[in-house]
Amino acid sequence: GGYAVSGGLHGVGVSVVNALSARVAVEVKTDGYRWTQDYKLGVPTAALARHEATEETGTSVTFWADGDIFETTDYSFETLSRRFQEMAFLNKGLRINLTDERESAKATAGADEAGEDEKHEVKSVSYHYEGGIVDFVKYLNSRKGDLVHPTVIDLEAEDKDKNLSLEIAMQWNGGYTEGVYSFANIIHTHEGGTHEEGFRAALTSLINKYARDKKLLREKDDNLTGDDIREGLTAIISVKLSEPQFEGQTKTKLGNTEVKTFVQKIVYEHLADWLDRN
What we know:
Layout: H1 14-19, E1 21-30, E2 33-40, E3 43-44, E4 49-53, E5 58-65, H2 77-90, E6 95-100, E7 107-109, E8 119-121, E9 123-128, H3 133-141, E10 153-159, E11 164-172, E12 179-184, E13 187-188, H4 194-213, H5 226-230, E14 233-241, E15 246-247, E16 253-254, H6 257-277
Parallel strand pairs: 12-14
Antiparallel strand pairs: 1-2, 1-5, 2-3, 2-4, 6-9, 7-8, 10-11, 11-14, 12-13, 15-16
């Protein structure tokens, strides 16, 4: 079957990579065979070819960016590594392997006294998180010092009618800075959006209600501000939806109005339950 959602900002995906590459080689194992096709600047260089029979499935896409179009085709291992780690956190159970096989990236160990040839070690990382965004919060908080509460608060919810799902993981640490990171279809929404607005509104409203119910705030006291409440908070908000509306100059702000209502309701209910139990 197909995918319920896809991670992208402009709906063009691999077609742009294909159009801007001196060569793209695609290999697909499906329907009992291995299939291949090559492209140059977006145009097939040969017909789709069927090869040997196989029971395996999978897709491999290799591209060579066109040096006449791009000033540089040198890719940063660190940039790719950070993004792939983020993707692994956001897709619970997914394994992503990144290997840099370029000669320039190989660490050279000096030849020993016997005059052996120099040995090369390939630069490689692998990311896999069964805990998903709970592991993401633990990873971020591992550098933040003391924790206010030992366990990460996490919640998941889905509205099948709207093809909308939500995952949130959060934990307060002893620091003073807020670290709330939001994502829509695995895309980091740097400018926030309706999912963040719903989260912040529910959090501020609920914590103030809790503080008043427990007499932590007296009648004459002002409400706690959102900034007060989010001090020391590390949180990951991840929504997946079929038709995301991205706004802002860099298309990194989620604009779907139905998301705010959904997130606000779910966060309020789940967090209220957690507070009652803890």
